[in-house]
Amino acid sequence: MEKTRPDREQRPSGQVEFRDISKSYQGVMAADCINLKIGAGEFVSLLGPSGSGKTTLLMLLAGFIEPTAGQIFVDGKRLDQVPPNRRNQGIVFQSYALFPNMTVRENVAFPLKARGVPEGTARELIAIALKRVRMVGFENRYPSQLSGGQQQRIALARAIVFDPPLILMDESLSALDRKLRQEMRVEIKDLHSELGKTIIYVTHDQEEALTMSDRVVVLQAGRIAQIGHPLEVYEDPCNAYVAGFVGDANFIDGVVQGDDGNSVDIAVLDGVVRACTPARWTAGQRVRVLVRPEAVQIEPHRPGGGQECGRGSALAGVVSQIAFLGDAHQYHIEAGGQSLMAKVARSRKGQHFSSGDKVEISFHSEDLRVFALDA
Ligand SMILES: Nc1ncnc2c1ncn2[C@@H]1O[C@H](COP(=O)(O)OP(=O)(O)OP(=O)(O)O)[C@@H](O)[C@H]1O
């Protein structure tokens, strides 16, 4: 039987594990007992509002700060005693910008020089990295002579040039305009598929996290609120915090009327909605119902509206505001003293509504999510 080649066995693959990791700053828990395993080649986004601890986790992994407790492992080896320059990670942080006094070539050469790579090999590696980020021909320019997107590409080239198994990116696209961000997202994703590196990506932009990641880690005050595939986190958020942070959301508070084992009837606004939920509820329980704007159905008002209908329930409302989003219309509808947002994909045949129109809104029972409200 053929022997496994030792060089293959030892080749780093970029698996990461945070084990009981905490970091506190004068009593503020920036990371609070984080347990997280990231597989080799995964693209994982750390998503959360400002102060939720995203950067702290990345800085701990990069070795720029030390944990108060816990351990970090990469490819099964403890990392917390290894200095940052020995961690073999590609870093694209805003605070780790290109060196302004160095040309593109010198910037990309920097990590190779630091690792003592011979000049001839370095030249080849730089050429490969610049080709990967489509920046061949820019070698002699200085960062100030590049656009924001081009600088980002060079920062990426500098991060991948030494072939690290793990790439850390912190709010890397936040300085770019919307169109460029979208382009760079696609390029980073392409690069990820091409290189198969593990990428850990910090962002507060949920669209970015949902479009790019294999898994999203939603952080809340230094803790993990939910980990999952983007669709899972969007469609089945574990609580109202995650639901509100990942995607647009309408929340309607109500009181449970009855639970028949398959679905629950909830008194909300001026009507009753029916939701399919795996959890069981008791009559009188106060709950918060989530409905995504694209799951709100609008129809013109008809006499006898506001009653239950086959696919859920219909509530009476009045269109108060309309926004044209290009591919969809966004309606704000006043219903039972609350403003609900509806997003309707634009189509030539589709019905459109005007401000002041009386409408009926309804939801499919499967599209509603129900969360318990604390007493
Ligand atoms: N050097 C520090 N000294 C004191 N507190 C800090 C320090 N660095 C971070 N914190 C605190 O730790 C918490 C987490 O900060 P962190 O930068 O990780 O959050 P974040 O989610 O990355 O936020 P942002 O999106 O604003 O960068 C915050 O409450 C922050 O104020």
UniProtKB/TrEMBL annotation:
Q: Which gene encodes it?
A: potA
Look at the named UniProt entry and state the broad enzyme category this protein falls under: translocase
Query: Its family?
Result: Belongs to the ABC transporter superfamily. Spermidine/putrescine importer (TC 3.A.1.11.1) family.
Ranges where the ABC transporter domain occurs? 16-246
Supply the InterPro entries for this chain. Answer: AAA+_ATPase, ABC_SmlMolc_Importer, ABC_transporter-like_ATP-bd, ABC_transporter-like_CS, Mo/tungstate-bd_C_term_dom, NA-bd_OB-fold, P-loop_NTPase, PotA-like
- UniProt subunit comment: The complex is composed of two ATP-binding proteins (PotA), two transmembrane proteins (PotB and PotC) and a solute-binding protein (PotD).
Catalysed reaction(s)?
ATP + H2O + polyamine-[polyamine-binding protein]Side 1 = ADP + phosphate + polyamineSide 2 + [polyamine-binding protein]Side 1
- Looking at the UniProt record for this protein, which Gene Ontology cellular component terms does it annotate, in alphabetical order? ATP-binding cassette (ABC) transporter complex
Domain of life, source organism? Bacteria
Q: Please tell me the species this chain comes from.
A: Ramlibacter pinisoli
State the EC number(s): 7.6.2.11
Q: What is this protein called?
A: Spermidine/putrescine import ATP-binding protein PotA
Record's keyword terms, sorted: ATP-binding, Cell membrane, Membrane, Nucleotide-binding, Translocase, Transport
Function description: Part of the ABC transporter complex PotABCD involved in spermidine/putrescine import. Responsible for energy coupling to the transport system.
- One Gene Ontology term of the molecular function aspect: ATP hydrolysis activity
The UniProt entry, under SMART domains, shows:
AAA (SM00382)
Asked if the keyword Nucleotide-binding belongs to this entry, the reply reads: yes
